Amino acid sequence: SAPPAVSLAEASRITGIQARGFHDLVVWNPAAQRCATIAELAADAYQHFICVEAVRIGTPITLAAGECWQGEQRLIAA
C-alpha cells in the first residue's frame, strides 16, 4: 500500500517516483551473488545502488481474454 508518489533522497539528489495503476512499491538490491550474474553490472555494483519499482502484489490484476491493463512508473530527477 504505497502512496502514488514517493521520493528517494540521496546525499546529492532527490529522485521522485510516481506510479499510476500500481498500489505497491518494492525496494530491492540484487546482492553480491545475483549481481555477479547480470552482464550489465560490475560484480560489486550492488554496493552502490538500490532498485525502487512500482508493482501490484497485494491486489493482483487478473485479465480475461481480450482485456488489457496499463500501469505507469515515472522517475523525476531533481
Please explain how this structure is put together.
Helices cover 6% and strands 36% of the residues. The protein is mainly β and 78 residues long. It has one helix spanning 31-35; strands at residues 5-9, 14-20, 24-28, 51-55, 72-77.
Query: What is the distance, rounded to the nearest whole angstrom, between the alpha carbons of the first and last residues?
Result: 25 Å
Q: What proportion strand?
A: 35-45%
Give the overall average pLDDT. Answer: 92
- Summarize the main sheet: 3 strands, antiparallel
Biggest sheet, strands in spatial order?
A: 1-2-5
User: What is the count of DSSP helices, taking H or I runs of 4+ residues?
Assistant: 1
Unreliable residue stretches = none
Helix content: under 10%
Which structural category fits the helices and strands?
A: mainly beta
Radius of gyration: 15 Å
Overall shape: it is globular
Count the strands? 5
Question: Which sequence of SSEs, written as H and E, runs from N to C?
Answer: EEEHEE
* Oligomeric state, counting identical vs distinct chains: single chain
